[in-house]
Design brief:
With 291 residues, the chain is mainly α. 72% of the residues lie in helices and 3% in strands. The chain has a two-stranded antiparallel sheet with strand order 1-2. The protein is globular.
Length: 291
């Protein structure tokens, strides 16, 4: 019972933070300053939150890699993640003074792969192919999707309401897939990586995601047609589930139960954001269709 209340409290704090940082300007419109209906204050809150998530997520990813015997270039990975988030500043209408950092980051970005290879020369031990690969994979798997999530939340692309609905759809899919699997689940979906998931549970999660997207989605992103919301629901359900399975694959390969301990009762950042990391790049397709 104690663990149940710990998980509930942790999940409540997580949900409240996500809603606040993504929908800050929708909750507090008085802060809006006319920059495409997005305040600088609201943007910086979301930016700082996902920057923190990125750093912790990279830490967890590289720690799992070390448990597997690899030697990622962690500092270089963190720098690459910061560079990505620095470039992000140039795509969002914020203070002009921040544009200088964007220019610097765009100059640094092409140098990073070469710097990574050159730094590998000074390491006495390890497998350069594997170590470089896991370093770059961490940036592409963790930092890039989180940077895209903040970018897509700009009102000129998809908007805060749509991105919040994406998070809600992922939550609904997970919740109803669990309930559906518990009640009627008989056929295992992917027992090698996640023995608890069933085809029946995934079907229930997909069904409720589609219903929520079609009937609730237009309230947060009314300019989208029903078939766009249908596509968003499918991405959130199918790709989100695969993202969850992929993170389980990493954990099982490294022999760890959770990616971290930052969220009591739930695990780490990667345990909570695995579906979002997988879904976000596919939302670029939605952005293309919507525009």
């Amino acid at each position: 019972m104690k663990n149940f209340w710990i998980r509930t409290a942790s999940a409540t704090v997580y949900a409240a933070l996500m809603i606040l940082v993504i929908c800050f300007d929708m909750i507090f419109p008085q802060f809006s300053d006319g920059l495409d209906n997005r305040s600088v204050f609201g943007f910086l809150i979301e930016y700082a939150f996902f920057l923190f998530v990125m750093v912790v997520g990279l830490f967890e990813f590289y720690r799992m890699a070390e448990a597997k015997g690899l030697r990622p270039m962690k500092v270089l990975g963190y720098v690459a993640g910061l560079v990505l988030f620095g470039i992000l500043l140039g795509f969002i209408p914020v203070y002009e003074e921040l544009l200088l950092s964007t220019v610097v980051c765009m100059i640094l970005a092409p140098l990073l792969p070469v710097v990574a290879v050159l730094l590998a020369l000074f390491r006495k031990e390890g497998n350069p192919f594997a170590d470089l690969g896991v370093t770059i994979l961490g940036v592409l798997y963790v930092a890039l999707p989180l940077m895209l999530f903040v970018l897509l939340g700009d009102n000129s692309i998809l908007g805060q309401g749509v991105m919040m609905m994406v998070v809600v759809l992922i939550w609904l899919n997970d919740a109803f897939a669990y309930m559906g699997g518990s009640l009627i689940g008989k056929h295992k979906l992917w027992p090698r990586h996640s023995p608890g998931k069933t085809w029946e549970g995934c079907a229930v999660g997909l069904l409720f995601s589609i219903l929520a997207a079609i009937f609730v989605g237009p309230l947060l992103g009314g300019e989208f047609s029903w078939y766009v919301w249908l596509l968003i629901a499918v991405f959130c359900s199918v790709i989100g589930t695969l993202g969850d399975l992929a993170e389980s694959m990493f954990k099982r390969s490294c022999g760890v139960k959770d990616s971290g301990t930052i969220m009591p009762g739930h695990g780490g950042i990667l345990d909570r954001f695995d579906s979002i990391l997988a879904v976000t790049p596919f939302l670029l397709i939605i952005a293309f269709i919507a525009h």
